[in-house]
Amino acid sequence: MTSALARRGLRASVTLAFTLGALALSAFLAFGTYFSARHFLVDQRERTAMRQAFTDGALVRESLQTSGAQVSEVLGSLSPPAGAVIYVHRNGQWYSSALDSAGPELTADVQPVVADGSVGVGWTGATDPSAVVVGVPLPAVDAEYYEVAVAEELDRTLRTLSIALAVFAGLTTIGGAIVGRTAGRRVLAPLEEVTSAAVRVSAGDLTTHLGTTQDPDLAALVGSFNHMVDALRERIEQDARFAADVSHELRTPVTTLTTSLSLLERSPDLSPRSSEAVRLMADELARFRRALEDLLALGRLDAGGHETEPVRTGADELVRQALRAWGQPYDHVEVDGPNVAVRVDRVQMLRVLTNLFRNAELHGGGLTGVTIVAGDDVVDLRVQDRGPGIPAADRDRIFERFARAGGQRAGTGSGLGLSIVERTVRNHGGDVWCSERPGGGAVFVVRLPIDGAETP
Amino acid sequence: MTRVLVLEDDAGLRASLRMVLEDEGYDVVEAAEVDDALHAVAGPSSVDLMLVDLMLGGMDGFSFIHRARPRTEAPIVVVSARDGVEDIVTALEAGADDYVTKPFLVDEVKARLRALLRRPSLGTASPREEADVVVLDAEEGPLVLDRGAATLARGSDQIHLTNTEFRLLSVLADNLGRVLSRGALLEHVWDQGFFGDERIVDVHVRRLRKKLETEPSSPTILVTVRGLGYRLDAR
């Protein structure tokens, strides 16, 4: 049942329940009405037939008594009521007002009772529609009088009644289905609202709230849902704030450390052992400082802010600037297609490219080239290296924070470089991914929307 | 000797900065509070450069810049743990010449100090055949920039320029009528390369216009060439 309900859906189940309920109720009422009406009408019809038969039977008895006339003559002088046929059974002989010989067959059910000297009433299905048969014994003339009346009117009435009741039951069932559907929708409307709110929340909109309701049955759900969203947002903000606060608190101490260490590094009086130790410290501190800068940059990106006003710049100009800033003796930029402009936060986007260059240098065996491929709406900046490439399974994971290629523990970067790349590009309405280069090596593709606006 | 004021509330960083700057040959004045720093600025031997931490809540640092700026043209470099856009722009508009955010590399700070301390008249690589005296606006004033004497005057009125404003104006005057990109100005005036923040240029141009232009909101001397940079026109 549960699984059937789950398959069908709640609304369909409610509708079905209402439909079946309406059908059962209307069918019950229709049958009840039909049978009680039928009982009453049949009873009425039998009484009428009996009254008629008594009257006619008395007439036949009197006619036979007075003149000793033949039965057929007496029947001929009688005018039976419309739709009725009179039969007389006398001395084993059957006489009929309609000159047919169906008497024995039609009266078969009633005959034994009449033969015993009682009045018999019954129905025969031999006619169409069925007929009421009344038998009256006429002991004075030693005969049995039968009147067979076809119940045409009764039949018509009952048929009309049954059609009316069936139509009524059908309409009631349809009405039940409609009410069920409406009720189902009404009942499920708040649930749908909750569903769409939950979808918005999972998409990251943590300001979503359900409207307050006066309905005591729903108030608890609405209250706890809103409470859940608030708690979730608070939790996420707390996490982000914690990382930002920690990084912020580390700024001054790290600056003091690097500044002081730069004094030590230049000191001429250090023993070789000491200067070796100072060099180690300086290297580690440089890493630490980079990690801190990356964390701070990620914090700013998470807050969604730009660091400088986005400006319109040529894609190739951006790449060349990044290469110059990167400071490697390398200037191989290939422009495939028209040279297009993008609108970027220059500082952030230069950081994206230098992060990719550093990644190529650290993990990719060195940068081999940057290709710019312009499409209709987007431009791809493809940063290629000559390394072993990234296994397909890791290509999404490497953009996560603190993920390292090939599960490498002792990386030389902060583990945040590619996260910064990903976050920055997304903030610019673009996309970044990693794929394989036909000739071997990895290629990181930064896809940015083209700034189609005319040069201001 | 060049005197450098270090306003920094963190004792450790203040001490290490003092030592590094002393190694560079500067005479360092330390201050942990705004009042001490203002004393040093107003003192008998004035300072040539100020390294200012925005400090707790930023208000101390901002109030120092506001109060020190009228008393000295010496460059102010903001050192800050705050990297919000508003903090940076507020500090620059209050009169700071440059800013660095923590954690910084001390070599970078030293390079910036050197750039800001360069003599204004030696600030450009352009040949000296350019006239030392440039008339920027002949109609009203006249507005005259004398690079030899490092002065700007409208008629008989001297116009007060900070060292950085003067250097910026000199570089633009060397390239009179030519457009200079923000990047080029960053490189020439502040010695900063590709990662410099172009807002430094914008804020300084705004400050300069208030002093040069009769109508700073619709400039006619220091004009913006949209999408390219700035140009100095003589009238």
TrEMBL record, chain A:
Catalytic activity: ATP + protein L-histidine = ADP + protein N-phospho-L-histidine
Sequence ranges assigned to domain Histidine kinase in this UniProt record: 245-452
Source organism of this protein record: Nocardioides mangrovi
Entry GO MF terms: kinase activity
Native organism taxonomy: Bacteria, Bacillati, Actinomycetota, Actinomycetes, Propionibacteriales
Record keywords: Kinase, Membrane, Phosphoprotein, Transferase, Transmembrane, Transmembrane helix, Two-component regulatory system
Main location (coarse class): membrane
The name this protein goes by in its record: histidine kinase
HAMP domain segment(s): 185-237
The keyword Phosphoprotein belongs to this UniProt entry's keyword annotation: yes
Enzyme class per UniProt: transferase
Top-level taxonomic group: Bacteria
Compartment list: Cell membrane
SMART domains associated with the record: HAMP, HATPase_c, HisKA
InterPro entries the UniProt entry points to: HAMP_dom, HATPase_C_sf, HATPase_dom, His_kinase_dom, HisK_dim/P_dom, HisK_dim/P_sf, Sig_transdc_His_kin-like_C, TCS_sensor_his_kinase
Pfam family, any one: HisKA
EC number: 2.7.13.3
TrEMBL record, chain B:
Organism of origin: Nocardioides mangrovi
The protein, known as: Response regulator transcription factor
PROSITE patterns hit by this protein: OMPR_PHOB, RESPONSE_REGULATORY
Residue stretches making up the Response regulatory domain: 3-117
Domain OmpR/PhoB-type as annotated: residue spans: 133-234
Keywords for this protein: DNA-binding, Phosphoprotein, Transcription, Transcription regulation, Two-component regulatory system
Pfam families in UniProt: Response_reg, Trans_reg_C
SUPFAM superfamilies found in the cross-reference section: C-terminal effector domain of the bipartite response regulators (SSF46894), CheY-like (SSF52172)
Protein's UniProt keywords contain Phosphoprotein: yes
Highest taxon of source: Bacteria
DNA-binding region(s), residue ranges: 133-234
Gene3D superfamilies given in the database record: 3.40.50.2300, 6.10.250.690, Winged helix-like DNA-binding domain superfamily/Winged helix DNA-binding domain (1.10.10.10)
Ranges in a coiled coil: none
